[in-house]
Amino acid sequence: MSVGDSFMAADWLEGRGFNLVTIIIALLALIAGVVGVLYARRALFPANRAISYRMDISRLLAGDAHALPGALTVNYNGEDLRDPHVVKLRLRSTGRHAVASEHYDQGRPIKFDLGRPVVLLDSPTGSAFQVSGSQVKYGPELMPAGHSVTISLIAQGKPRLTVDHYFIDTKVINESPEPAASTSERSGVLPAILGALAALTSLVAMIVDALAR
Questions:
Q1: Binning pLDDT at 50, 70 and 90, where does residue 191 land?
Q2: Which of these, 175, 203, 206, 211, lies nearest to 31 by C-alpha position?
Q3: Residues 124-148, mean pLDDT to the nearest whole number
């Protein structure tokens, strides 16, 4: 190697070429690190199980209906219902794995207490719903991933829902209009993605700056 070649190599290592190579190596290392974190997270935290529920309510009679002459009433099996509200309760298996019977601890069902007496209007044939007083129970029952089941009821008064469950390794998520649906499953992933994007943007800016010198 000639003296001129040695100077050219030194200039390359100390100048723009060296900066560019360093940045490219750092970029590749960052990408490899992000991919490794994603795969490690999947290995350490396997596919989840989750049941989501949604309750939709509509009042059957307007508030002033009882003040009208010959007031309107709703009668069910010979009984007049006071301030009836139609309730639709939907359950969905929203995790990546099915929720099986063994995931109900000691075989105890998930229990929805509406705080008002309820009567059953409609439910799927052979479903695991049980309705008694103010309570609706479901399970233990296999719910494959993506499966949903809906029940229709009439409540005497506006429901005030409380939920009791004893699931094993299974999340329970409220998708009702009030309050808003849970986003806990995504909350840990979004900051990591935004951080990676910010780092990539910074590296691209460094590359552009190095090339411009």
A1: very low
A2: 203
A3: 91
Within 13 Å, how many C-alpha atoms sit on residue 140's CB side? 14
pTM of this prediction exceeds 0.85: no
pLDDT over 80 at 8, yes or no: no
pLDDT at residue 192, as a whole number: 46
Instruction: Please compute Rg for the chain using Cα positions.
Output: 30
